[in-house]
Specification:
Bound molecules: 2,5-anhydro-1,6-di-O-phosphono-D-glucitol, manganese (II) ion
Oligomer: single chain
Order of helices and strands: HHHHHEEEEHEEEEEHEHEHEEH
Number of strands: 13
Shape: globular
Distance between the termini: 53 Å
Strand content: 15-25%
Helix content: 25-40%
CATH architecture of the largest domain: 2-Layer Sandwich
Structural class: alpha+beta
CATH superfamily of the largest domain: Fructose-1,6-Bisphosphatase, subunit A, domain 1
Length: 336
C-alpha cells in the first residue's frame, strides 16, 4: 500500500462537508465504529487462543474471555457508542429490545440511532472462517432530547444515512457508505490504522457467481429453484460457479468485487426468510445500491419495505444488477 493512501480518519473528515446534514456528529459516530471494529478485530484474531491460554497458565480468565464472540462484539459496539455519548438509541440483533440512551438524560441532543449485527456469520468463528459486523444509521424521527421510541428504528431502508460492514477476513476491511458511493479501507494491523484501499467500489453489472445455501434447495419457492437451474445450465457464459461462505458479509464482499448474486430465499423451513431486515438486509441493500447493484425480496425493493418489528425477517437477494433482475424475472414467472 502506498504511503499516499488516505487513512479512514482523514477520509471521514474530508468527506463530512459533502454530507447533507453536516454537524460532525456522524463523523464522531463513524470514528467510534472504527474504534470498536479494531477492538473486535483483535479479539476475533485470537479466537482459537482463548482456550489454549486458559488451559496452559490457569490465567485469571475474566467473564469476557469466556463470552461467545458475538456477545463480546455486541458489548464492545454498544459500550463504545454509549460511553462516547454518540447516539440516542441502539438496536442490535443480540438484544431483545432497543436501547434508549437518552431516557435518563434529557440533555442528550444526539440525532442518530444505530442498528447493528455485531457478529455476522458467527457459526464460522470456531472453524477460522471470515466473519463480519454490519451497521446501519438513521436520523431519529422523534424530537431530539426525548427518549427514542420504536418508530425511530422501524424506518424504511431508504431513510438510512449511513451503512457499512467490517469483514474480519484474510485482512480486515471496513466498507461503508454515507450515500455518496462505497469506499473500502484495509486495516494495517502493525499500526492499527485503516487505509483507503478500495475507493469507489462497484458491483460489475453481470457476474458468474451465485451464493446460496443449496442444502435448502428442495424447500425453496419454485421461482428460486428455476433460477438456480438456470445458473447451472450450460449456455452462453454458464454454468455459473457456486460460492457460499455462510457469512453474508463475506459473501457480499466477494460478490461486489467479482460480480455475483447472494440469495437467502424464504423456504418451507424459514417461511419469512432468515435474514433480518433491519440489521442485515437494509444496510447491505444500501451498500449494494450505492455500488450500482440491486437488492430485493424477489419482488420488492428491500429499502421500500416498511418494517413492522425489530427482528423482522425477509427473503433476500442482492448483488450484480442484471443477475438480481434475472432472479426476479424467474420469481414473477413462477407465480403466473
Ligand atoms: P448471524 O451469524 O448474524 O446469525 O447471521 C448468519 C446469516 C448470514 O450471515 C449467513 O449468510 C446466513 O445466516 C447463513 O445461514 P445458513 O447457515 O442457513 O446458510
Ligand atoms: Mn448476521
Ligand atoms: Mn449476528
Amino acid at each position: 500500500m502506498s504511503k499516499q493512501n488516505k487513512t479512514l480518519g482523514e477520509f471521514i473528515i474530508e468527506n463530512q462537508t459533502a454530507f447533507k446534514y453536516t454537524t460532525g456528529e456522524l463523523t464522531r459516530l463513524l470514528n467510534s465504529i472504527r474504534l470498536a471494529a479494531k477492538v473486535v478485530n483483535h479479539e476475533v484474531n485470537k479466537a482459537g487462543l482463548v482456550d489454549i491460554i486458559g488451559n496452559a497458565g490457569d490465567v485469571n480468565i475474566q467473564g469476557e474471555d469466556q463470552q461467545k464472540l458475538d456477545v463480546y462484539a455486541n458489548d464492545v459496539f454498544i459500550q463504545t457508542l454509549i460511553k462516547r455519548n454518540i447516539v440516542c438509541g441502539i438496536a442490535s440483533e443480540e438484544e431483545d429490545d432497543f436501547v434508549s440512551i437518552n431516557s435518563q438524560d434529557s440533555k442528550n441532543q444526539n440525532k442518530y440511532v444505530v442498528l447493528i449485527d455485531p457478529l455476522d456469520g458467527s457459526s464460522n468463528i470456531d472453524v477460522n472462517v471470515s466473519v463480519g459486523t454490519i451497521f446501519s444509521v438513521y436520523r431519529r424521527i422523534t424530537p431530539v432530547g426525548s427518549p427514542v421510541t420504536i418508530d425511530d428504528f422501524l424506518q424504511e431502508g431508504h431513510q438510512q444515512v449511513a451503512a457499512g460492514y467490517i469483514v474480519y477476513g484474510t485482512s480486515t476491511m471496513l466498507v461503508y457508505t454515507t450515500g455518496a458511493g462505497v469506499n473500502g479501507f484495509t486495516l494495517n494491523p502493525a499500526i492499527g490504522t485503516f487505509y483507503l484501499s478500495h475507493p469507489d467500489m462497484s458491483f460489475p453489472l453481470d457476474g458468474n457467481i451465485y451464493s446460496c445455501n443449496e442444502g435448502n434447495y428442495i424447500h425453496f419457492p419454485q421461482g428460486i429453484k428455476d433460477y438456480i437451474k438456470y445458473c447451472q445450465m450450460e449456455e452462453d457464459d454458464r454454468p455459473y460457479t457456486s460460492r457460499y461462505i455462510g457469512s453474508l458479509v463475506s459473501d457480499f464482499h466477494r460478490n461486489m468485487i467479482k460480480g455475483g448474486i447472494y440469495l437467502y430465499p424464504k423456504s418451507s423451513k424459514n417461511p419469512k426468510g432468515k435474514l433480518r431486515l433491519l440489521y442485515e438486509c437494509n444496510p447491505m441493500a444500501f451498500l449494494a445500491e450505492q455500488a450500482n447493484g440491486k437488492a430485493s425480496d424477489g419482488f420488492t425493493r428491500i429499502m421500500d419495505i416498511k418494517p413492522t418489528e425489530l427482528h423482522e425477517r425477509v427473503p433476500f437477494m442482492c448483488g450484480s444488477k442484471h443477475m438480481v433482475e434475472k432472479a426476479e424475472e424467474f420469481e414473477r414467472k413462477a407465480l403466473k
